[in-house]
Amino acid sequence: MIDFSFYSPTEFVFGRKTEQQTGTLAKRYGATKLMIIYGGGSAVKSGLIDRVQASLSEAGVEYVTLSGIRPNPTENKVREGVALARENKVDFILAVGGGSVIDTAKSIAAAVDYDGDFWDFYIGKAKVTSALPVGVVLTIPAAGSEGSGNAVITNMATGQKLGIKEPMLLRPKFAVMNPELTMTLPAWHTASGICDMIVHILERYFSNTENVEISDRLCEGVIIAIINEARKVMKNPQDYDARANIMWSGTIAHNGTCGIGREEDWAGHQMEHEISAMYDVTHGAGLAVVTPAYMLYMADHHPARIQQFAERVFGVSDAKEGVRLFKQFLHDDLGLPITLQQLLPNLSEEEIQNAIPQFVANLHKNKGNKFGAFYPITPEVTTAVMHLAMG
Question: Alpha-carbon distance 73 to 69, whole Å?
Answer without folding.
Answer: 6
